[in-house]
Amino acid sequence: MAKQTESAESIYKVVEVIGTSRKSWDDAAKNAVETAASTLRDLRVAEIVKLDMKVEDGKVQAYRARVMLSFKYES
Description:
Layout: E1 12-21, H1 25-37, E2 43-56, E3 59-72
Antiparallel strand pairs: 1-3, 2-3
């Protein structure tokens, strides 16, 4: 019997998440990915699509990173 191989065709889902941090954009992006990874399996790619900051009284209060995450659908 021939050995079954994984199909070359795959389907991926893309979701958008926003991470926040009081320290940096790097931490905000990392928080977004690591939090999403606790409920999404098989994350493949994380793309930062937007960076912004929350400002109050002329001071930066928080950094925010909007991240698009892709993960593979299970077959």
